[in-house]
Amino acid sequence: MSETVNKRRLPDNRDVASLLKTPGCRSCGRYILGAIMRYLFSLSFILYALSASSNELEKILESWSLSKTPVEIIENIKRQDRDPESYEDLRIKWDRHVVYKSDGKLKLKIERNPHSSTELEIGEFLYRSIDKGEFGGELGYTYRGEYFPLLEGNVRKLILYGEKLYILEGLDHMMSRGVVYVIPDAENPSHPERVTLLPEAPNEALITDDGFLLIVGDNGLYFVSDDFFSILYWNAFWSGIYLWGPTSVVEYTDKYLIGLPKGVAVVELISPFEPPKIELYMTNEFNKSIQPTAKASAD
User: Which residue segment(s) compose the domain that 80 sits in?
Assistant: First the structure.
């Protein structure tokens, strides 16, 4: 009995190569080697796909006449913005770059002014909101020619997800505050239920491919669901600049594109415990205008 056991003991040096030469482990070794090869192939395919999508995104941004801009440059703009003499209407001339999807493709449009009303038709109901800033606002719906009010407030976004209608409301005047409401069944209008308070007025939002509500504000980026609220990015580089808030947000592969005046920010979420990776693309005209500033910052 002991002789049989001794024959099955591992080699003294525990060398993997020696182990794989033993008759009983040859098939096991081939299996392990095959698994490693399959893993490496899958990993290389994923890395290739990510690289290809990144290159494709860069080409799209270039086709919009946008090029990379160091995020640090924005800090200089913030310093100028604190100077009362800089409050000329320079920023008002900054075209709002709005990113969106059409037929699954990324698109860009230029807007001069934000929208003050939102409409969404669901079945026989036409939901409509009016945002008058500090002068108030309202959300209601029209059914068979008759209008019914639902909520007083500055409604900035309506998002349909399944049967639910999410309502983003908020005001950024003197102080910033926001709320997310939901109507559980959009085809059966009812008084909106509060989901959560927000640390600021929301600018834009979308439902991610994973089913979370992603909200972009003047100060940051955060996830909301029926069960939790999570801040992903706070003190955003675009915060604190007058009339320079996000205009739009779109999910593209594993990244989020955030429209800004004169450009687009590309945000990649690494993990809940790390700050996101951010790349900024501004118009070629803008990048030429900041070259002296960029040089001074480098020095």
Answer: 64-114+216-299
Domain match, 258 and 298 both: yes
Residues 33-68 have pLDDT tens digits of 666 666 655 554 444 444 445 789 999 999 999 999
Side chain identity, residue 292: P
Helical pair 73-81 and 291-298, crossing angle rounded to 10 deg: 110
Closest CA to 251 of 280, 225, 285, 216: 216
Measured distance CA(165)–CA(183) in Å, rounded = 5
Identify the H or E element spanning 155: strand 155-161
d(CA 136, CA 127): 17
Total domains in the fold of the chain: 3
Each residue's pLDDT tens digit, 145-185: 999 999 999 999 999 999 999 999 998 877 888 999 999 99
Helix (H) or strand (E) holding 99: strand 96-102
Residue of 255, 257, 247 whose CA lies nearest to 98: 247
Contact 106, 60 (CB under 8 A): yes
* pLDDT of 15 higher than 70: no
